[in-house]
Amino acid sequence: MNVAAERLPAEEPAGSFAAAFAWAFSRDVRLTIRHPGETLLVVAFFVLVASLFPLGVGAEPQLLQRIGPGVIWVCALLAAFLSLPGMFASDYADGSLEQMTLSPHPMSGWACGKIAAHWFATGLPLTVLSPLLGLQYGLSGDTLGALAAALVLGTPVLSLLGAACTALALGARGGGMLLALLALPLFVPVLVFGAGAAEAQASGLSAAPHLSILAAGLIVAAMGLPAAVCAAVRIAMD
Amino acid sequence: MKIPWFYFASPPTFYRLAGWMAPAFFALAALLGAAGLYTGLVVAPTDAQQGEVYRIIFIHVPASWMSMFIYFVMACYGAVSLTFNTRLAAMMARALAPTGAMFTFVALWTGSFWGRPTWGTYWVWDARITSELVLLFLYFGFIALANAFEDPRRGDRAAALLALIGLVNLPIIYFSVLWWNTLHQGSSVKFTGSTMHVAMLWGMLLVALSFWMYSIGASLTRVRAIILERERRTHWVRGLAT
Fold it and tell me: Is B179 on the interface with A (CB under 8 A)?
């Protein structure tokens, strides 16, 4: 893989957050674009699972309108979770993660770049697709707007939390199930407020309080979790 | 008096100290537990609204307190083990996790038995109950991650970091009854005073102290087993066997 073997540009001054971020982000995005199958699989999974619910619980329009936001959020949660192992595991396996930790750039720079790339490859497509799925569930226009706004604010938190969990589980036994046990409980608050935003809008209340809490959560997660991801990668490298 | 922390942080010394302290804490737990249960089940009056069924409170509330408190202590030990790289602190964090998970389970279980006669349901997806369930899964995640590596030190560090990340759940549980107006009632005991009969309050506090002493005793007993397992190749452990 040519991109994976690319080195950090030599002319950059040592220890720049922005350079490391830009490098890791562009590298992971390029990898995603050259292997579009993985992102398409995540999207297909999202749409497929969301389409199973009307078949399972019955297709009465009122019931679907009621459960729609929650179902779409649970599907987004699972899709984000299933794409987590790709974030660090392959770099860990082929040794490039170790090379990155040896680079002069701050670890948080490329860690944030990788997290942003993960969001770009999973959170963003799901957010863009969510109004389409919402229409299948018969959600009204405002509810679709609230749902998309909640997904824009909530899916980056999922990427941040998931990055910390998948970095902690690097090299652990019990792979996917262990990751589920670590990540899904931490995802719960995002699910509660994310689905709450659309439900509040659907029942005639304002979605603003939920969106504010999600935005606050995003800020706290963006401040604290990159440090946790770096600590977890260092633990894995010991 | 100056406590020689680093002297007691050495596993062989702490192994002997814990072996001496654990029975004392178990004895205290039994005494306080007997006193608390007597106060709660015999002395305390019947509740005006709920009748006798409210007496589940004497297990339910102390167990919920301990479930949150043990997680906090566990995360503190995790922070100590990460910052000072001490072996014993990580072992203590590991030793506390099963006791904390047990109390979380007891809190959920007694709560569900209390909910059936008073709320008419075993389970509601109320904010506090849901966040307590999340706490149970955080304990399970901690235990699973700590045991998921070939190298136990690696498991120690990863699990300690996970405990610190999961710490954000504690204020959510504690304040959930204030933030969301759902079925679970607010707290009757506050630092500024309590809305309960004095015998009920004493019963609850005595049982909580008893659970606290039990947790110390159980984690000390467990940490002795962990020390023996980790240090099985050293001279002093082999010396114990002969």
Answer: no
